[in-house]
Amino acid sequence: MKKYNGTRYNSLWDSSTWAIVAIVAACCLVPCFLDDGIWVAIICLAMWAFVLLTLIGIYYKIDGDKLVVYSFFIPTAYPIDKIKEIKPTKSVLSAPATSLSHRLAISFTDRRIMKSTMPLIISPVRQREFLCQLLAVNPDIRH
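Request: output the structure for the sequence above.
Response:
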């Protein structure tokens, strides 16, 4: 796995993210108070830990001419020079984004990059700085 450097942008945790974590925690705590045995409690706590690790493992880096999206700590690099448009979205599509309300939809000029017509949806913190850094690499991005 290639090691990427550059500026790191964590994925934004807002009230929707914390609500998801709280709901999963509540669902995992219920079996702990029932008399179902220790294994059910261990499995539920392991599932809650998996959800937390999944959310913590989502972040983004801008490394030279690449936008690197980490999902569960696994990087996927996208060429910044192929970005056509970046716009805010309220889409609830599955994406490497932890926020449900502060998301950006990134469209590419070449459909083969995403292997579909769907945009890449992310939720970086410091969105203005993130956009400025992308525009410094590719000033042709519509926003």
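Strands lie at 7-10, 59-63, 66-71, 74-79, 83-89, 103-108, 120-122.
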